[in-house]
Amino acid sequence: MAAFGLHFGTCSACLAVYRDGKTNVVANDLGDRVTPCVVAFTEHETVVGAAAKQGIIRNASNTVCHVKRLLGCQMDDPLVEEYSKTSSVNVVNQNGALMFEVDHKGKPARFNTTDIIKIIYKKMLETAQSHGGSGIQDAVLAVPPDFDSNQRNLVTDAATKAGFNILRVITEPSAALLAFDVGQIDQTEGFKTLVYRLGGTSHEAVIMEVEHGMYRTAAKVSDCQFGGDVFTQVLQGFLMTEFNRQTRSDMKDNKRSVAKLGLAAERCKHSLSTMITAQCAVDSLFDGCDFHYNMSRARFDSLCLPLLSKCTALIDQVLGEADCSKDDISKLIICGGGAKPPIVKKAICDFLPNASLLNSVPEDEIIAIGAAKEAALLVGGVESENISIDKESSRVNFRFLPKAVCIKISNEELEVVLPQHSLAPCRRQHTLTLAQAQTDVALEIFQTDDPAKLETSELLAKLIMRDLPPGSTIKSNFHLKREGDLHITCHEVTSDKCESVTIPCP
């Protein structure tokens, strides 16, 4: 069964799926791993994503961007006035409610923020169904940590109406930690992790305390006046100056030309995240003149150098809020599409030299990956003929474990996986390597007061895996859910075989 993680950001959305022991981002119909949160209304259809973003130059008054910023706002909110100054779409008051007024299929139409978000979620559902089959899809939503209950309810309602079955709503920092299994595999010590997110229009720093597989927010600081778009604007300004120098003209007052150059600058910035140089080319940019410029990463870095202090200042602020020093941070996660330029990661790593950077997942996919892992744990396992459970003894009926959960590693020896009194929810991983001549294995799971006494231990479940490659490595993931159920998944890495079981709470 597939379980999805949804991250709906201000500028883009990402969808990840957990299936058969693996978590991957699902590409949309264009092959892109992230989808711009842009909705355009035309004479014939409603367009979502990259096509809507590309068409904003000629259809600006009917294109809605950055709708997440206005979620839950009323017309008298200062954010609405600020939004109206930078957006071409008309924002109107309808009985005190905020509405977007557009021309759709030849007629005037009005949509509220939830309507726009639902349209984007429907696009994400199409992507999910292409991977998980038709019908309603189970998913976990990741939202900003400062979302109130009303905003959480609004996004949940929009996703539900779009066709998702929302299992849970979690915060983005928690999802970021889950993406890397922080604190879930080894729960023997507590530590602090800093999550820095640089989105398109905002950035935030959050310090998370991790202990016994549990996450607690120690401090968080956010700034909605600075984001990755500022880096794009700096590059756009440089390119505009270069174009004016080449053509001896002045294009700054031509909105269409400025918008075209802005899109080109954004593409150039993304290319420079992975390449040393990038070509910025715009046909007929202004007054019939084409523009071509070969931008180097070194030049881009020098342009953006003054912006980096904004990133580190926010981190310094959250350290003060948590009353801790740089040396207290053990792990560092940098996420968000705006954090893709290497210079951003370098500046933050230099600022926190003793923190271990977790960077095995692309920055703009981290939160969706973590949400998908949470969704998989909530969906539970699927039993097969290779799994047997003692229904009378396999009960884990507490918010914490009354007994240790162990795996049998020899005829007389147990190894503790989840210690006694582990708090729910918590997770841990166990790795077993088979002998070179061994191709079958029976994994026996016990609960016990004393791991040294196998004879007094209680068998919870037995998972049998057959026809494995000799010398296989089996990774067993144990998850004690919030409700008290114990979910176990065993995954053989080479053959990709997987067995799982859920030991129910009575």
Report on the architecture of this protein.
By secondary structure, the protein is of the alpha+beta class. The chain folds into three domains: 3-171, ATPase, nucleotide binding domain (Nucleotidyltransferase, domain 5), CATH 3.30.420.40; 184-359, Actin, Chain A, domain 4 (Alpha-Beta Complex); 380-503, Substrate Binding Domain Of DNAk, Chain A, domain 1. It is 28% helix and 35% strand. It is built from eleven helices and 28 strands. The protein has helices spanning 50-54, 78-86, 113-132, 149-162, 172-179, 228-247, 255-272, 297-304, 308-321, 342-351, 366-379, and strands at residues 3-8, 12-19, 22-25, 35-36, 38-41, 46-48, 63-65, 90-94, 97-104, 107-111, 137-143, 164-171, 191-198, 203-211, 214-223, 277-286, 289-296, 329-335, 356-358, 387-389, 404-408, 414-418, 426-433, 441-448, 458-465, 473-480, 486-492, 498-503. It is globular and about 85 Å long. The model is unreliable at 381-398 (pLDDT under 50).
Label the CATH architecture of the largest domain: Alpha-Beta Complex
CATH superfamily of the largest domain: ATPase, substrate binding domain, subdomain 4
The quaternary organization reads as single chain
Strand content: 25-35%
**Anisotropy-based shape:** globular
Number of strands: 28
Pfam family, one: HSP70
Subcellular location: Cytoplasm, Cytosol
GO molecular function, one term: ATP binding
Family: Belongs to the heat shock protein 70 family.
Descriptive key words:
single chain, 506 residues, alpha+beta, Nucleotidyltransferase, domain 5, five-stranded mixed β-sheet, 11 helices, 28% helix, chaperone
